[in-house]
Amino acid sequence: MSILSLLQQAQNGEGLANMAAQFGLDADKAGELAGMLAPALGSAAQEQAASGNLGDLLGNFKGEDQAALFEDATAAASQSGQAQGTAFLEQLLGGQEATSALTGQAAEKAGLDLGTVQSFLPAMAAMLQGGLQKSLPDDTLDAMSGGGAGGGLLGMASSLLGGDSGGMDLSKLTDLLDADGDGSALDDIMGKFLK
């Protein structure tokens, strides 16, 4: 399941529409934004994995108590939800400057006010983070990040790069890192956030 698919399944398929309502957006516009932003986030996650930052990447997915952000658009759109989403984005994308660049590009492409997208993107990121935490429980992440030479992070890195996974099933993680849902995570590494 790609990141976009995960967002589309939130709240029985109503998550993006519910999120749009929090910001006075048309549901179609929210879907358009998600369609642009999800591949960018998936690609950023893939770049982190490929560049050896798997520990930090996995750390973002821990904390099952945050799954409520996936299940409740109001919680994700709240001040604390947006703050969490902003922190997630900045860690994932590599800082505030990259997050601002992505937000600006998305607002321009969607024909939306920058301030609206600056609020919507962190809320959507918080909802996504909650969904990732539900999809990859903490005990699964602990198993991925532990272990010996053929397992843990080494095994995951090898698997992401086409090698041996050390016997672990990493399909959920590689599916989530597959930004466009075509079955391959590696082809989603992009030089730019948005085409």
Textual characterization of the structure:
This protein is mostly helical and 195 residues long. The protein is 67% helix and 0% strand. The chain has twelve helices and no strands. Helix 1 packs antiparallel against helix 3, helix 2 crosses helix 3 and helix 7 crosses helix 9. The longest helix is centred in the first third of the chain and has 24 residues.
Give the percentage of residues in beta strands. Answer: under 5%
**Main sheet makeup:** none
What coarse outline follows from CA principal-axis ratios? globular
Task: Give the beta-strand count.
Answer: 0
Order of helices and strands: HHHHHHHHHHHH
Would you tell me the structural class of the helices and strands? mainly alpha
Mean pLDDT: 75
Distance between the termini: 22 Å
Low-confidence segments, given as residue ranges, are: 147-170, 182-195
Radius of gyration: 16 Å
Separate helix tally: 12
- Helical content (DSSP H or I, runs of 4+): 55-70%
Secondary structure elements and their pairing?
Elements (H helix, E strand, L loop, with lengths): L2 H7 L5 H8 L4 H24 L3 H7 L7 H4 L1 H5 L1 H15 L2 H15 L3 H22 L2 H8 L6 H9 L10 H7 L18
Helix pairs in contact: 1-3, 2-3, 3-8, 7-8, 7-9, 8-9, 10-11
Give short descriptive properties of this protein.
single chain; disordered C terminus; mainly alpha; 195 residues; globular
